[in-house]
Write a structure and sequence with these properties.
Elements: E1 6-12, E2 20-28, E3 32-42, E4 45-49, E5 52-55, E6 60-63, E7 65-67, H1 70-88, E8 113-119, E9 127-135, E10 139-148, E11 153-156, E12 159-162, E13 165-168, E14 170-172, H2 175-213
Antiparallel strand pairs: 1-2, 2-3, 3-4, 3-14, 5-6, 7-10, 8-9, 9-10, 10-11, 12-13
Length: about 230
């Protein structure tokens, strides 16, 4: 597999309170950006961790965006650690923090998308489904939400909170690709919703037909003697 085009920005923490030494953003092939990547000091040295979200049901953390191939993971790890070494050696005022999420206009006709959508059985709020997507069999994004209110149905990329503000953790940086992803997810969501409604309707119909065709059982009324008689 050919090397991917990577645009990396690293933001060192000058006075770290824990094991995290820096945060990073990575843009891949001018198609997708991943934020909240972390450089962590472990027992065996520095390593790179993809953005994660806590799964309360399984009591574990899962990556929300990550490379699908070992080769791309190695490329990202090497690029982030190299940039960290350079950036952390500079004085804070010397660090030039550019924004990697500005993609040129490119042809996306050959981009391969693989979409998975899961409906929520009993949604309590505006979120009606979760989705995941892979791009060119290289990068996956999870925890995408399908949000529906009285006005519209929309797609929300995975987010993290920075203080009171929320920002996308991973997202397409190409406008046309974002439209393609939104359309693919909403199309799958509507198909699943239609199928679920049809299944429910068929079950209700079958239940009604079964109830109508089953003869009512006569009540078994046991004759009782008045108390005190025949005793």
């Amino acid at each position: 597999m050919a090397d991917s085009k990577l645009d990396v920005r690293v933001y060192p923490i000058d006075e770290p309170q824990g094991s995290t030494r820096a945060f990073a953003s990575v843009a891949i092939d001018d198609l997708v950006a991943i934020r909240s990547v972390r450089v962590i000091e472990g027992e065996n040295g520095l390593f790179v961790s993809m953005p994660q979200m806590y799964n309360s049901k399984k009591n574990e953390y899962n990556d929300t965006a990550f490379p699908l191939t070992a080769e791309l993971r190695e490329e990202i790890t090497a690029a982030v650690l190299d940039e960290y070494e350079v950036t952390s050696a500079l004085d804070p005022e010397e660090r030039g923090y550019g924004d990697p999420e500005k993609a040129p206009d490119i042809d996306i006709s050959g981009v391969k998308l693989d979409v998975r959508v899961s409906l929520l059985n009993d949604p309590k709020g505006d979120t009606k489904a979760f989705a995941s997507i892979s791009i060119n069999d290289k990068v996956a994004i999870r925890n995408i939400r399908v949000v529906e209110d009285e006005y519209s149905t929309s797609v929300v990329m995975p987010q993290t909170k920075d203080g009171r503000k929320s920002h996308d953790t991973a997202f397409p940086i190409n406008g046309e690709l974002r439209k393609e992803i939104n359309a693919a997810i909403l199309g799958e969501y509507k198909d699943l919703e239609k199928s679920a409604k049809k299944t429910l309707s068929n079950r209700l119909k079958a239940g009604a037909e079964k109830a109508a065709s089953t003869p009512a059982k006569p009540r078994d009324i046991a004759a009782k003697k008045p108390p005190g008689l025949g005793d």
